[in-house]
Amino acid sequence: MEMVNALGRRKSAVARIFVKEGTGKITINKKDLQDYFPSSILQFIVKQPLTKLDVVEKYDIKVNLDGGGFTGQSQALRLAIARALVKINPEDKKTLRSEGFLTRDAREVERKKPGRPKARRRFQFSKR
After folding, report:
1. Residue range 46-68, pLDDT digits in tens
2. What span, in angstroms and rounded, lies between the C-alpha atoms of 88 and 91?
3. CATH fold for domain 4-99
4. Global confidence as pTM
């Protein structure tokens, strides 16, 4: 199997990944998964598609993560991994789709408008 690449986005985070057969090592920006995401919940989110298909120990994943915060980054990475797994084996698409791992969460931060403190918040109204 040759190297497969995929892209995942969430909020302003972008995950570019390269998957090849290996021992289950996930490297993010030249750091180990446990070092990059110390939180076990975020590690769980990243590994969800692999766990679902029972291929955690089968692939080595090299990740280039950029932008956003840790939650957005972990979810962007999950999407990228799910997309790569579908490229490797198209039969897995139905399983991953039913779990919602292939759906791009399109919600972005609304821009701040002029004359307002935030996107929708107004300044306090004063009658007198």
Report:
1. 999 999 999 999 999 999 999 99
2. 9
3. Ribosomal Protein S5; domain 2 (3.30.230)
4. 0.90
